[in-house]
Amino acid sequence: MVIVLYVHNRPAYLKVAVHGLSQVEGISEALLIVSHDGYFPEMNAIIEGIRFCQVKQIFAPFSPHIFPDAFPGITPGDCEKAESRNCKGDPDQYGHYRSPHIVSLKHHWWWMMNTVWDGLPEIRNYDGHILFVEEDHFLFPNALRNIEALSALKACKCPECYMANLAPADVNFKGERINALVADKIGNVGYAFNRTIWRKIHSYAEQFCSFDDYNWDISMWVVVYPEWGSTSYSLRGPRRSAQHFGKCGLHQGQKQGQPPCFDEGGQLPPVEEEDKIYNLDSNWIVRYSTVQGYDRGFKGWGGWGDSRDRNLCLDFASMYHVGVTI
Predict the structure, then answer these.
(1) Of 58, 56, 48, 44, which is closest to residue 9 (Cα–Cα)?
(2) What is the DSSP string of 166-210?
(3) Is 37 known to sit in a ligand binding site?
(4) At 90, is the secondary structure helix, strand, or coil?
(5) What disulfide bonds does the UniProt entry report for this chain (predicted)?
(6) Cα gap 34→47, rounded to integer Å
(7) In sequence order, what are the residues at sequence separation of 6 or more whose Cβ sits closer than 8 angstroms to the Cβ of residue 206?
């Protein structure tokens, strides 16, 4: 199994996430790829200290944390307020101009996806599922065995399931705790998919990159997943095998000259005994949940109106496909 850990600059959270990974059954068999959106020594030191599995670090090269005084950071002459004149930049649908630290979230995720699937030699001939997690996701000991089983079962048990998830789409829900598998909305906590699904995602690069919302997940829910069919499901178990923790979102990561966001995120989430072992049954039926949330007609939360961001996003989609029109 390949696991990709998408991180910003929250070292207290990363320590918790890494501890959780270290306790996962079968983790020594995995390749862990850690994707950073900047170079932060404390974050790098935590990853370099990992000894429980193979690790590869990748660093997003076009980041405001690396280029604070030039695009995609703040370029001299950039528009800042709605009433700005004779400046550079395009407003979003609400009249607001880009915020580099906010748009970098979507840039990093899209660069990471393109790099992992199409740019890394270690993955070039890999046809299995890749599990994606973030630094505020705590994996339970059964996470790897459960996601392996779900990935294998979804083709026969749930043809409408494009991905497998370790947790419900509602991050506050612990699961139904019934003897059945669950077809749910595609969530962003511990999600896994294969190269076939990546090709489907990549084919909608234009829609993803032009949608006026700085959130990668909302962009996917609104302009990508609806194109796949009436409902795009993800297969998961009736109990979560991963948990979102902490109160500091990526938006509140450390900025230059400011202290990092901090809360009780440094505490280890509790793990029940049943979540320490493989707890799925391939004979269970699949229960379909009602998928709710952002609809196809949602116009987005904005923050992604600048043509430079949209063009950079499209550049990421084509950087490993020279001569191919996206």
Answers:
(1) 44
(2) SS-SSTT-----SSSEEEEEPPSSSEEE-HHHHHHHHTTHHHHHH
(3) yes
(4) coil
(5) 79-87, 158-161, 209-313
(6) 8
(7) 314, 326
Task: Confirm or deny that 244 is annotated as ligand binding.
Answer: yes
Contact 91, 211 (CB under 8 A): no
**Residues ≥6 apart with Cβ < 8 Å to 6:** 35, 108, 109, 112, 132, 133, 134, 135
Polymer length in residues for the chain: 326
Asked if residue 318 lies in contact with residue 213, where contact means CB atoms within 8 angstroms, the answer is no
Question: Exposure string (b/e) for 297-310, b if CB count within 10 Å is 16 or more?
Answer: eeebbbbbbbebbb
96 annotated to bind ligand: no
CA distance 206 to 185: 23
Burial class (CB in 10 A: 0-12, 13-18, 19+), 22: middle
> How far apart (Å, rounded) are the C-alpha atoms in residues 118 and 129?
14
Give tens-digit pLDDT for 122-148: 999 999 999 999 999 999 999 999 999
Q: Write out the DSSP string of 248-267.
A: --GGGS--TTSPPP-SGGGS
Q: Which residue has the tokens 């939360």?
A: 301
Mean pLDDT (the chain, rounded): 91
pTM of the predicted model as reported, rounded to 2 decimal places: 0.92
Which residues contact residue 179 at a Cβ distance below 8 angstroms, ignoring those fewer than 6 apart?
238, 281, 284
Whether the per-residue pLDDT at 280 is higher than 60: the answer is: yes
Spatial contact of 242 and 168, defined as CB atoms under 8 Å apart: no
Is the separation of the CB atoms in 237 and 182 below 8 Å?
A: yes
Give how far the C-alpha of residue 265 lies from the chain's centroid of Cα atoms, to the nearest Å: 19
